[in-house]
Amino acid sequence: MSSHHQPSTLAALGRTWVEAWNARDLERVLTLYDEAAVMTSDRIPAMGFDASGTVRGKEALRAYWGKALGLLPGLHFTLIDVFVSPDSVVVFYENERGKRICEYLRVNEAGLIVQGSANHLPH
Q: Which residue ranges traverse the bilayer (predicted)?
């Protein structure tokens, strides 16, 4: 189990995550992730990646997000709020299309993201 992190540190991670995406800087985003990180989203199969909806490892994340960035030239996240627990942060934001999304990000002892999950409204 991950060690506990300060709420302010996790909130800062959430804000940094949004800033990195808004800069469209994939390598900056990836510096926030552990080499063995996993990401789950219903968008993963739709983009031609693993049918399970999960990609594993930084290289798979780089391929998935690189493709997504190429398809979304206007990508922009407006931060609504961040929610923290001892080992995770939920980033609540609105994307450039007006969709509200919660991104669950669990971190390891080093403060790197080891698990992410994009959570969309069911409609």
A: none
Dist CA 83 CA 108 (whole Å): 17
* Matching residue, tokens 């961040």: 82
CATH classification number, 7-120, choose in 3.10.450.50, 3.90.1150.10, 3.40.50.1390, 3.40.50.300: 3.10.450.50
Strand partners of residue 83: 90
Task: Say which residue, 2 or 113, is predicted with more confidence.
Answer: 113
Residues written for the chain: 123
Return the structure tokens found at 55.
């990609």
Question: Alpha carbon of 26 to those of 4, 44, 62, 70, 93: distances in Å?
Answer: 27, 17, 7, 11, 18
> Cα angle vertex 97, ends 41, 72, to 5°?
65
